[in-house]
């Protein structure tokens, strides 16, 4: 005769393991070097705007480069206007991500962006210049030479941020330049064509350049006329 199981002989139901929510998983997500550098740039910009002291910037940068998860980056930037936000507060698109090649403007148009980090970028010769250009340079070099560029617009807009970087913008000799500068332990300067060779007067109508430059421990130089090799006919 089979023995009947008593209550004490029945296997006890073990509680199912608690699964982390999507928000918790997002905060635990490992971050990349590019994400750390993007957040570091955000902190430097905030310091340039006076939102962080130099000591606070140093402390937070140390935390950024030592961060392993998204949640750690959130804690370092959540009190800043453009800082990272916790997952539950995010909309369908992230509030801060790796910068795309194009950024939207208030009127809906898109602006090409040159992002440089520990490298260099040059636009010279007969390149096709957009009406609006954004440059973000960190520990690198950028050269924009408009003296031979194809410009379909009479008015050009350039927004430059230089952080420990060297940015050179060369405009035609007869260009009209409106410069809005914001150097922070850096320099933003406008220079005439240097000595050597002859600068031929341009017969084309002058282009107008609106240049806004922020230099944090970096340099932004606006130069007029063709580069020296062109003036000396060293093509």
Automatic annotation (TrEMBL):
Residues 30-81 form the DUF1707 domain. Residues 1-30 are annotated as: Disordered. Residues 134-189 form the Cell wall-active antibiotics response LiaF-like C-terminal domain. Coiled coil: none annotated. InterPro entries: DUF1707_SHOCT-like, LiaF-like_C. This is Cell wall-active antibiotic response 4TMS protein YvqF. It comes from Kribbella lupini.
């Amino acid at each position: 005769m089979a023995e009947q199981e008593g209550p004490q002989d029945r296997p006890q139901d073990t509680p199912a393991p608690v699964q982390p929510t999507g928000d918790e998983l997002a905060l635990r997500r490992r971050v990349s070097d590019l994400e750390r550098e993007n957040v570091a740039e955000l902190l430097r910009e905030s310091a340039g705007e006076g939102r962080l002291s130099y000591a606070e910037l140093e402390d937070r940068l140390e935390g950024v480069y030592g961060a392993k998860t998204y949640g750690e980056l959130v804690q370092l930037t959540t009190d800043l206007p453009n800082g990272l936000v916790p997952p539950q507060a995010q909309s369908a698109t992230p509030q801060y991500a790796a910068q795309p090649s194009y950024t939207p403007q208030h009127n809906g148009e898109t602006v090409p962006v040159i992002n440089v980090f520990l490298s260099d970028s040059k636009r010279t010769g007969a390149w096709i210049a957009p009406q609006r250009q954004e440059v973000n340079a960190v520990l690198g070099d950028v050269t924009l030479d408009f003296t031979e560029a194809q410009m379909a617009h009479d008015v050009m807009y350039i927004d430059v941020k230089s952080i420990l970087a060297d940015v050179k913008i060369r405009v035609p000799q007869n260009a009209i330049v409106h410069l809005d500068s914001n150097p922070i332990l850096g320099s933003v300067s406008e220079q005439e064509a240097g000595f050597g060779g002859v600068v031929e007067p341009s017969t084309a109508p002058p282009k107008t350049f609106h240049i806004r430059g922020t230099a944090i421990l970096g340099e932004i130089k606006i130069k007029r006329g063709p580069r020296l090799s062109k003036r000396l006919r060293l093509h």
